[in-house]
Amino acid sequence: MQNHRRSTIINPSRYIHEWHWHAFSALVLVGCLLAFVAGYVNTICIVSAFRLPLTALTGSTAKMAIVLAQGHFDVAFHFILLIFSFAMGSFISAALIGGSSFRIQRHYGLVLILESIALGIGSLFQDVHVSLHAEWEALTPSAYLICLGFGLQNGMCTTFSGAVIRTTHVTGTLTDIGLIIGQAIFHKRTRKHLWKLKILVPLYLSFCCGAVVGWFAFELLHNKAILIPCTIVGCLGLGHTAYCKIFLNLNIRKIQARNEEIFKSTRLSIVIPETIPELSIASDKHSSDMDPNDSEVEHTAIEHCLSTQNSTTPLLVAVYHPEVIQEQ
Predict the structure, then answer these.
(1) 232-279 residue pLDDT tens
(2) CB-facing half-sphere around the CA of 113: CA atoms within 13 A
(3) Domain 13-254: which topology?
(4) Are 199 and 28 in contact (CB under 8 A)?
(5) Rounded to an integer, what distance in angstroms lies between the CA atom of residue 165 and that of residue 28?
(6) Neighbours of 163 (CB within 10 A)
(7) C-alpha distances in angstroms, 55 versus 37, 77, 200, 223?
(8) Domain boundaries, the chain
(9) What residues contact residue 213 under an 8 Å CB cut-off, 6+ apart?
(10) What stretches pass through the bilayer (predicted)?
């Protein structure tokens, strides 16, 4: 018999628009901050010594093909390392997060902390060049670290959003905006996807704002300008980690304590009926030897027990005084 397993590859975007407004707003806010960081760093990489956009590798791939065609294999090796670093960042992100569905307790904070470390080290060593051979083009380790950091970021966002949130480049974002608007105008059945514009438009505007701010920051701070987005990403990562370790753990302990109470009450309600035959025999003997005054006191106590709405009390009352149950 063939075993049918549920597919582990799902599209998380179908669930995002069903979130509560505050969770949806938090998602958009974090995405916009990351897009701002990407635009900021991308501008700095273009105007600095790198002369390349490192948050997306379309241009680097094209340049690699050009230098390969020209026979400059040493320069091509530099672009190959850039592409490999970005892919390695996505690989590490997938290994740490470990799932395509969004769960707040996954290691998103750790991924952002690693990105912050990569950006910080890359900004401190922008002027460091490594030459493997006297005639070869010098390599720039800081560029590889920046590519690694944004590979981490892009992999994390793509994982839990179903490729709706892509923060390191805007090619796919602009493509989705055009597709959604065009389909909504000419095909009414596709208007259900208009909610994605609430994410895509702010992402694009945030990337543009980050690019503008990045240029002014580089004019003022030069190589130290990357420390600003490094701090932003690091704070996001530390905030998420602290939230998971403190707030979520407290809630989990409360839920576990509540479940233990429910489990104990359930066991009590199951054990009590097993003692009913013994209690009924004891009640017959007890009623024959009971003083009339004691009977009135017990009757009053039983009525009080019924008023407390204890789930196990009626079982005992039904044994001793069935008439009380009928009155209730």
Answers:
(1) 999 999 999 998 888 877 777 777 777 777 777 776 555 555 544 554
(2) 11
(3) Growth Hormone; Chain: A; (1.20.1250)
(4) yes
(5) 9
(6) 13
(7) 10, 18, 18, 17
(8) 13-254, 275-327
(9) 36, 40
(10) 21-50, 75-96, 108-126, 138-156, 199-218, 224-248
